[in-house]
Amino acid sequence: MNYRHAFHAGNFADVLKHLVLTRVLTHLHAKATPFRAIDTHAGLGFYDLTGDEAGRTGEAAEGWGRLDTPFPEAVEHLLAPYRAAVAATQARHGATTYPGSPAIIREFLRSTDKGVFVELHPADAETLRERYNQDSRTKVMHLDGWTALGALIPPPERRGLVLIDPPYEELGEIDRLGAALAKAVAKWPTGIYLGWYPIKDVSHVDRMVTELHGALNRPALRLDLLVSEPDATRLNGNGLIVINPPWRLAEEAMLFLPALAERLARTDYGAFRCEAFGAQA
């Protein structure tokens, strides 16, 4: 599949990915020491939901658009940083804007923190430069994201996160994600890693997690969200591997995952998984 960000901005997959990202960034804020956030497949940074690509699919209406009605208080507390990041991005760039991961990361950077945004597509990388290279806290790199993953860790701060969110244009990239995560953790064991994947055939994810479990000596979480019944012919869900998760993330996920599964379900089917593996399992 080709999961180029512009066509899917604000969809159900972005909701899960960006909610988890903001929970991790909130955790990193708990300490005053600087951190670095690396986005290996950054896209354009933010998107106009009325633009050609996002408008062509209309997927935001079934994702971010379904969050207008408040959730119960405990879930809203967890969503608050995510909602605030979207609101801040819209204040900067317009009410029809939805943030990609770089825009969300930027909103969380303090004066001593750094954000590194990597993008291989030449035109997209140039757009990223125009949008972020004037900010001293952020740096844009025109580079293959998989190459960047190995080259940019461990960061000088020795504290932070890596988001790996490839477009899945080639067969075998879910397996590649697992192998890349295992290799990265061996190089920087204490970093927080978020590896995103689409779900069509869930058995592909099961195999990757099983192999990664055998290779990891660090704690990890598998967070899956399904919005329609499993069907290997179409995208019906997505998930994240979180390595070295914040200590309360699993507890938080058991609040927000069922709420999202119910709210974002395409028909009457919504499902989720929160599963610990790695060194803790």
Automatic annotation (TrEMBL):
Residues at the catalytic site: D165
Site (Interaction with substrate rRNA): Y3
UniProt entry tagged with the keyword rRNA processing: yes
Catalytic activity: adenosine(2030) in 23S rRNA + S-adenosyl-L-methionine = N(6)-methyladenosine(2030) in 23S rRNA + S-adenosyl-L-homocysteine + H(+)
Pfam families on file: RsmJ
Binding site for S-adenosyl-L-methionine: H18, H41, S101, E119, D144, G145, D165
Keywords assigned by UniProt, alphabetized: Methyltransferase, RNA-binding, rRNA processing, S-adenosyl-L-methionine, Transferase
Xref: SUPFAM superfamilies: S-adenosyl-L-methionine-dependent methyltransferases
Glycoprotein is among the record's keywords: no
EC number(s) reported in the record: 2.1.1.266
Family affiliation: Belongs to the RlmJ family.
Subunit architecture: Monomer.
Protein function: Specifically methylates the adenine in position 2030 of 23S rRNA.
PANTHER family with a match to the protein in the record: RIBOSOMAL RNA LARGE SUBUNIT METHYLTRANSFERASE J (PTHR37426)
UniProt protein name: Ribosomal RNA large subunit methyltransferase J
Source organism (scientific name): Methylobacterium adhaesivum
Underlying gene: rlmJ
